[in-house]
UniProtKB/TrEMBL annotation:
One of its GO terms (biological process) is intermembrane lipid transfer. Pfam families: GLTP. GO terms for molecular function: ceramide 1-phosphate binding; ceramide 1-phosphate transfer activity. Gene3D superfamilies: Glycolipid transfer protein. Residues 93-233 form the Glycolipid transfer protein domain. It comes from the Eukaryota. InterPro entries: GLTP_sf, Glycolipid_transfer_prot_dom. Residues 34-61 are annotated as: Disordered. GO terms for cellular component: cytosol. This is Glycolipid transfer protein domain-containing protein.
């Protein structure tokens, strides 16, 4: 005998129903005929099927800033590729490719955190100054040193806002970075702060006044752990080999800038 007494079974359904798209879980109460308790063929109660609602089934992953940056090669790979195009067929340093290589070094400085914020800001500002001048007449300023020649002729090269001044300090900042990267490869026993201080004393320090030197000394105390820094910038490549290539390839370009600036009497300016 079949009883007419309705039962309420709670059935858990996913929220992909078109009728109820906003509910993560829909409980449907329905009538179901069931055998009478006196019926000898009564079956045992059907067990409930417990499933987690969709919002509990989502795959949880770490946010991007907690995952190690994955990259093809190392953080130096873009700049190494860019340096292949810095010189023209006649061997002249070209403005746009040179500045692009300098910009591609900025991501490395970002990994230093606040310890390199002053250097990063200085480099970025000088790149912007030179790019703005180049953009005003790309043909006229195609060659990097033409930016200086025009100002020397106009007797504006010594202005603190000149492109000559910008190129000089950009080149000096890159000297510092090359020396720092060289230390990281050739002095594996040095702490990051020691590698930075040594590079600074060999490059920028003699051109800085007391205030700039003091600011750098304070900032360098915030240098990151050496091993963690090297792990972050390594990517999937050989970081030591790429640093060696970077220093060996970039140093001659910087030396060429210094030689040219010295020829027009603009390589010995100090910070005001």
């Amino acid at each position: 005998m079949i009883s007419d007494v309705p039962t309420c079974n709670m059935i858990e359904e996913a929220s992909n129903s078109a009728d109820h798209p906003s509910h993560p879980m829909l409980y449907i109460y329905h009538h179901e005929a069931r055998p009478s308790s006196s019926d000898p063929t009564t079956l045992p109660p059907r067990p409930f099927r417990h499933t987690s609602p969709p919002f509990l089934k989502r795959r949880h992953t770490s946010p991007p800033f907690l995952r190690k940056m994955q990259m093809e090669g190392t953080v130096f790979t873009p700049s190494l590729e860019g340096m292949k195009h810095v010189k023209s067929e006649s061997g002249v340093i070209l403005t746009k490719p040179f500045l692009q290589v300098c910009k591609q070094i900025l991501p490395v400085l970002e990994k230093f955190g606040s310890a390199m914020s002053i250097v990063k800001t200085d480099i970025g500002g000088n790149i912007t100054r030179l790019e703005t001048k180049y953009a005003s007449d790309p043909t006229k300023y195609e060659q990097l040193h033409s930016l200086v020649k025009v100002e020397v002729s106009a007797k504006t090269a010594k202005s603190s806002s000149s492109c000559t001044n910008g190129l000089l300090w950009l080149t000096r900042a890159m000297d510092f970075l090359v020396a720092l990267f060289h230390n990281l490869v050739h002095h594996p026993d040095w702490q990051m702060s020691q590698a930075c201080s040594d590079a600074y004393s060999k490059t920028l320090k003699k051109w800085h006044g007391w205030l700039a030197s003091s600011s750098f000394s304070v900032a360098i105390k915030l240098a990151p752990d050496r091993k963690k820094f090297m792990d972050i910038i390594s990517g999937s490549g050989d970081i030591n080999a790429d640093i060696e290539k970077f220093c060996a390839t970039f140093s001659p370009l910087l030396a060429e800038n210094h030689k040219f600036l010295a020829s027009v009497g603009m390589d010995d300016l100090k910070a005001s």
